[in-house]
Amino acid sequence: MNAPRVIEGDRNARDLRFAIVAARFNDFVVDKLLSGAVEALRAQGATAEQIEIMRVPGAFEIPTVVRRLAVGRRFDAIVALGAVIRGDTPHFEYVAGECASGLARVASETGVPVGFGVLTVNTIEQAVERAGGQSGNKGAEAALSALELANLLRRLDV
Predict the structure, then answer these.
(1) Is the pTM of this model over 0.90?
(2) β-pairing verdict for 18-23 and 51-56
(3) Domains within the chain, CATH numbers bracketed
(4) Which of 24, 68, 91, 155 is catalytic?
(5) Rounded Cα–Cα distance for residues 114 and 149 (Å)
(6) What are phi and psi of 80, to 5 degrees?
(7) pLDDT, tens digit, for every residue of 22-32?
């Protein structure tokens, strides 16, 4: 009996263009996510010329810029980076929820892969752990996910 055909993306970044949209709010964490994302793409063959970085005020603003970039079709994949840390008010739920749903909507409606590297954590310590600590670097993980999905979508178009 023959096995089903499996189609998946690889992590070859040589022929792709990437946008990274990174929030400035909580930059002590986001800058580490950004470094991780860039390093991950460079390790997979991307050059500096293939990566453009856009900075926005905070996580709430990320989906607006990601949508504009996705609609413009200049990039094969987009990586969204931010850090929303819970405080004493419900502000966290609104910002985190709107950012996540906005990014999912952009990816679904445009077909452009969006790597989700927006941390939604309870404490600063949790954020630091996910930005290069023992939990790894979620910015790097988001970049690699977007890269792999971009290559998968290219294979599906053939």
Answers:
(1) yes
(2) parallel
(3) 18-153 (3.40.50.960)
(4) 91
(5) 9
(6) -105, 125
(7) 999 999 999 99
